[in-house]
Amino acid sequence: TAKKGKLYLHIFDWPKNGKLLVPGLKNEVTNVYPLGIIHPDIKYTKIRAGVEIDMADITEDKNLTILVLEYEGELRIRQPLITPSKNGEIIIPGNEALKHGKYGRESYRSILKDFYRTWDVKLEENTTYDVQFIYKMKYDKKDFVLEIGENSLLFTLNGKGVKKEKVEILDGNEIQKESSEKYKDGFISKKIGKITGDKKGRKTILLKQGQPFDFKTTTLEFNAQDQKYRTLNIEIEKIVLKPKNK
């Protein structure tokens, strides 16, 4: 998570090599220390990929280690560029998203409650992609929008591995039948449709909610909104963009 001049780094997995990378950070760093402890001796290095923090002098918190990184100027983050494989397929890891919260808050690989997420990818010109989501979601159903430039794809995801299918019976009536779309480790796999990248090069892919959720002047108006749209509320393992006809 971030406040002006500070990044709060939530470390869920301790780096095996003792070096923590803050990818894409372009700002000059002035200090790094554990939350609540001003520690002047922590070493950090600016490298091409971002900022690398030496964890040797940091004691791991058994609950959750949080580091404070102080920087100069307005926050500038260059997201990792996700490139296609040899067959043109693009695998977008969910944990490489830049999360965007209310009031301009941004977070990279953290627990921020976000309203939309972005990834930077390298696209080929005028290529149409079949889009597949691998995800977890606690809600039965929720609408989302995926955008690449001016092109967008509106789709609905079903939570808890359940998909509703229409099944016609002999008398002409239709009933709803549930079918599973489970992938692995509780994740769900679903093909959501097609989207086109109209220009070649580095592009930002944006995932947002399919319905707005706003602060209202009264509690009654606020509570009248669909509460599942308060935040994005989805865990994404990966998004797969597969070039059509490949």
Global mean pLDDT:
83
Looking at this structure, what is the CATH superfamily of the largest domain? Galactose-binding domain-like
How much helicity do the residues have? Answer: under 10%
What structural class do helix, strand and pairing data support? mainly beta
- How much of the sequence lies in strands comes to over 45%
CATH-defined fold name of the largest domain: Jelly Rolls
> What can be said about the biggest beta sheet?
7 strands, mixed
Q: Detail the poorly predicted runs.
A: none
Shape: globular
Main CATH class of the largest domain: Mainly Beta
* Assembly state (oligomeric): single chain
* SS field, number of helical segments: 1
Element-level helix/strand string: EEEEEEEEEEEEEEEEEEEHE
Gyration radius (Cα, Å) is 21 Å
| Count of distinct structural domains | 2
Q: Quick summary of this structure?
A:
With 246 residues, this protein is mainly β. Helices cover 2% and strands 50% of the residues.
Overview of the structural elements:
The radius of gyration is 21 Å and the shape is globular. With 246 residues, the protein is an all-beta fold. The longest helix is centred in the C-terminal third of the chain and has 6 residues, at 219-224. The protein is built from one helix and 20 strands. It folds into two domains: 2-71, Immunoglobulin-like, CATH 2.60.40; 81-243, Sandwich (Jelly Rolls), CATH 2.60.120.260. Strands 8, 10, 11, 12, 14, 15 and 19 form a seven-stranded mixed β-sheet that branches. A four-stranded antiparallel β-sheet has the order 1-2-7-4, with no helix packed on it. It has a four-stranded antiparallel β-sheet with strand order 9-20-13-18, with no helix packed on it.
